UniProtKB/TrEMBL annotation:
Its EC number is 2.6.1.9. The modification N6-(pyridoxal phosphate)lysine is found at K210. GO terms for molecular function: histidinol-phosphate transaminase activity; pyridoxal phosphate binding. This is Histidinol-phosphate aminotransferase. CDD domains: AAT_like. Pfam families: Aminotran_1_2. Belongs to the class-II pyridoxal-phosphate-dependent aminotransferase family. Histidinol-phosphate aminotransferase subfamily. Keywords: Amino-acid biosynthesis, Aminotransferase, Histidine biosynthesis, Pyridoxal phosphate, Transferase. The keyword Transferase applies. It comes from Pseudoxanthobacter soli DSM 19599. Signal peptide: none annotated. The gene is hisC.
Length: 351
């Protein structure tokens, strides 16, 4: 607290990211990073960009990257917005598209940055409970909505809605922006991007942090029809003209263009997820169906905090949320097969 703060700062409840400890031998399964390195083509592109060119500002509209994303997803570059991580893209959407007389709707159990942005930008919101199976029910969103946001697959549950359900949600709310946060979609979900051509109220948000192994580069993007993208551009150009530096733009473009690396690494993650899920189930864990690079699991005889604490004693960190409905779950990022083996060995000892 300080008398120097603007009044709004007193009211904020900032997001707390998963910790990033620096410990030798740590098995870090807490922030849904990809266990495999970025494509060698990404590293080469970044290296090629480090030179005298850094004297100069980058392209404020990252046209080369937006063109690569547009080619990949069959949309015009003008329908692509890029930002400094999808968190920044989301922040601009909260400010530029979600603040209306009617409330923003999102699930009660979801990405915990959403209520933080609501606090920052004064967006009134209503949370819609997941059903008893911890799934999003599209019918539950039949209520007054200024806008809707949901991750698909949802976080931290990992569960995905089929595309037909997403389309139903978008078509049932023609007067509200429906934003689908597809941070994890590349690990087995169905993307709503092909619907963008038909629905002017649909915005789809992606990140390169997960399936492209680039959490450290900070690049995310949104795809939508021009009026939605223009709102994001207006907010961005009132905040920071250069959200992507030269290295980020070059690395991200190479990542988007390297389909082979993307398919190989996400394939490995999905195969490890299937193995880890069956091993956890064999130990008595209840594991929610996951289409993401993590699983959400609980053990009927052990509290979540206890399990997370005992794993930590063994230098294995997973994410535990001290929140009603999910306090007994662990969110476990899919690591390399060796990391998954260390995790299951430790859990076998504990349970
Ligand atoms: C659902 C969801 N959306 C967005 C993000 C933000 O990703 P980034 O800012 O790294 O692009 C995350 C990060 O964990 C997430 O879980």
């Amino acid at each position: 607290m300080s008398r120097f703060w603007s009044p709004i700062v007193h009211t904020l409840t900032p997001y707390v990211p998963g910790e990033q400890p620096r410990m030798a031998g740590l098995v870090k399964l807490n922030t849904n990073e990809n266990p495999y390195p970025p494509s060698p083509k990404v590293l080469a592109a970044i290296a090629a960009e480090t030179g005298d060119g850094l004297r100069l500002y980058p392209d404020p509209v990252s046209l080369k990257l937006r063109t690569a994303i547009g080619a990949l997803h069959d949309v015009d570059p003008s329908e692509v917005f890029v930002g400094n991580g999808s968190d920044e893209v989301l922040a601009h959407a909260f400010m530029g598209l979600f603040s209306h007389d009617r409330p923003l709707l999102f699930p009660d159990i979801t990405y915990s940055f959403y209520p933080v942005y609501c606090g920052l930008y004064g967006v009134r919101h209503v949370t819609v409970p997941l059903d008893d199976a911890m799934q999003v029910g599209v019918d539950d969103y039949r209520q007054p909505a200024g806008a809707i946001i949901l991750p698909n697959p949802n976080a931290p549950t990992g569960s995905a809605l089929p595309l037909a359900e997403i389309e139903r949600l978008v078509s049932e709310h023609p007067d509200a922006v429906v934003a689908i946060d597809e941070a994890y979609v590349d690990f087995g979900g169905e993307s709503a991007i092909p619907l963008v051509k038909r629905y002017p109220n649909l915005l789809v948000i992606h990140t390169l942090s997960k399936s492209r192994s680039l959490a450290g580069l900070r690049v995310g993007f949104a795809i939508g029809q021009r009026p939605l993208i223009e709102a994001l551009e207006r907010v961005k150009d009132s905040f920071n003209s250069y959200p992507l530096d030269r290295l980020a733009a070059a690395g991200a473009t190479a990542a988007i263009e390297d389909a082979a690396w993307f398919d190989e690494t996400r394939g490995k993650v999905m195969a490890s997820r299937a193995r880890l899920t069956s091993e956890l189930e064999a130990m008595g864990f209840v594991v929610l169906p996951s289409a993401a690079n993590f699983v959400f699991a609980r053990h009927p005889e052990h509290a979540g905090a206890e399990l997370a604490g005992k794993l930590r004693e063994r230098a294995i960190i997973v994410r535990h949320f001290n929140k009603p409905r999910i306090e007994d779950y662990l969110r476990i990022t899919i690591g390399t097969d060796d990391e998954c083996r260390r995790l299951t060995e430790a859990l076998r000892e504990i349970v």
